[in-house]
Amino acid sequence: MNHPISFKLALVQMLVEGGRKAANLQRAEQRIAEAARGGAQVVVLPEALNLGWTHPSAATEAEVIPDGESCSRLGLAAQAHKVFVCAGLVERAGDQTFNSAVLLGPDGGLRLLHRKLNELEIGHAYYSQGDRLSVAHTPLGTIGVMICADGFARGQVVGRALGLMGAGLILSPSAWAVPADHDNTREPYGQLWLANYGPVARDFRLWIAGVSNVGPITAGPWAGRKCIGCSLLVGPDGKPVLMGPYGESSETVLYADVVLPPRPARGDGWEALWRQRA
């Protein structure tokens, strides 16, 4: 008989330095190890963590998935620590470059590849557009992946589609940035994500985790802005469960216990589960 499964989720709010692949990958490996020591079974890292979002190095340093250095190293870390790892990577596929995210299993293998659908206009010069969505059926439950602005696509269509596909948990590597002079005491960051994650999480009784990097943006169209964390987990009631600290130096690992519904038995279909979530 299927029962809900509980596990610990880690949101890794880490420094990402534009164009500094070696340093970023080493930092990611260290944070995966730290999260595993903290008891996490699923570890989520930021968007484009190997090169930084819209950094010009995407044109020359993007790598194939899963055999490129970045994905391979993260896969080895997942395998070494027996955890699921979700991470944003800049991907090369033929003559195209994508803003992608992977879900890697505890064996290091690729379980899911997502290419960002709703890229901001300033990112179009750097990344091609993805053309599909999928979910991964794992022993912990059904997991979907989206990337940053996918979460506020019109009508929350990406998150809702993942909910209709049975996701009990949506992981969203992100790079949340503000102008250099942003005053968080006057304009607290995060309302955009609460407004878009909350309704999807509530309507489908699922969890959504958005994980942002921190640090200055040093090149590209948003040079001079800063990524500020505020990583967010929203629960099945549509309310925030935790939010990371704000600031370009606010590196941290956040932990939460997550409970996912069981996958319906073969032949049951998803309709009953959708009715329960409605």
CATH top level is Alpha Beta
> Strand share of the residues?
25-35%
> What characteristic shape results from the CA principal axes?
globular
Q: What name is given to the CATH topology? A: Nitrilase/N-carbamoyl-D-aminoacid amidohydrolase
Determine the CATH superfamily.
Carbon-nitrogen hydrolase
| Mean pLDDT across residues | 94
Order of helices and strands: EHEHHEEEEEHEEHEEEEEEH
Distance between the termini: 23 Å
- Total number of domains: 1
CATH architecture level-2 label:
4-Layer Sandwich
Strand order of the largest sheet: 5-4-3-2-1-15
Residue windows where pLDDT falls under 50 for at least 5 positions: 265-278
Helix content: 10-25%
Count the E strands. 15
Provide structural commentary.
The protein has 278 residues and is of the alpha/beta class. The chain has one domain: Carbon-nitrogen hydrolase (Nitrilase/N-carbamoyl-D-aminoacid amidohydrolase, 4-Layer Sandwich). It contains six helices and 15 strands. The strands form three sheets. A six-stranded mixed beta sheet has the order 5-4-3-2-1-15. Strands 6-7-8-10-13-14 form a six-stranded mixed beta sheet, covered by helices on one side. α4 links the parallel β7 and β8. α1 runs parallel beside α3. The protein is globular and about 50 Å long. The protein starts with a strand and ends with a helix. The C terminus is likely disordered.
